[in-house]
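ok so I'm stuck.
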Amino acid sequence: MNGERQVSESRLLIEVRDRDRGDARDRADLAAALRRRPREIPSKLFYDERGSALFERITELPEYYQTRTERALLERVADRVVATSAARELVEIGSGAATKTRVLLDALRRAGRLQLYVPFDVAEETLRRSAEELLEEYPGLAVHGIVGDFTAQLGRIPEGDRRLVVFLGGTIGNLGPDAVRHFLADVESAMAPGDHFLLGVDLIKDIARLEAAYNDAAGVTAEFNLNILAAVNRLTGADFNPQAFRHHAPYNRDRHRIEMWLLSTQAQTVHLPALDLELTLAEGEGLLTEISTKFDRSRIETLLTGSGLTPVGWYTDPENLFGLSLSRKG
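replied:
not stuck anymore, here's the structure
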């Protein structure tokens, strides 16, 4: 396979992108982001091994309602979603540790249609570990994992048989408006007629509740945010000092989104040799590391329809905190 290596063990196949090529793409994306105003760091750099572990801790925090709410919602509607989709294979974009995936795999097993799971994620170690765990838990399951950047490489998803493609966690909100449209178009292109797409979206709600979820009392989200600087240092040979920054995550009312920033606590100059870039930051100047846009049903279904998908189901929890949208291609 061009630019990739494959690791295969009977029921397990993992495709790994060419590391050098992937790092070059990440450096190019980072250089472009740091030259923008305001300066940005691409959020995909959060998910090194430590970042992935910190995010799993975030999902267990009392303030972070998203994961437990979405899981409870999945448990309530999974059988219905599987019946509607008639899926035999599950493709998960941004699979992470696959903690909620088991709800859908259980539903597929109950329906007698559990065959193949295709996780797609940027973090190889996390994907590999979760794949091996799932193989132990589901004896009849095969796993075809793909390590890559879902914002640019969905074309690597292989053809399959009657699929349910899922993108959970409200991760769609981390993409800007143009990126959302491009992503959904790529998802539609990767699907065959009759395939279904299950999308998890965080809904517009009380601002205090939103801000608490990204500014937890234990400081885990702050630690997660600051960890991205360590990832940048490894990627570029930079000399970012995380202690010279602080976490800041306010809600932008006009854009219906949380914005995660790293604010410089002093005037400083950062060197990024691999990018041939010197970054001069004033005290209080921010680096935007992530957005998390909140949606309503109407906006999501408009986006899906615009990408060529047909909405066929909408599910939400009793408090209307989180939504799952099911759509079909063709």
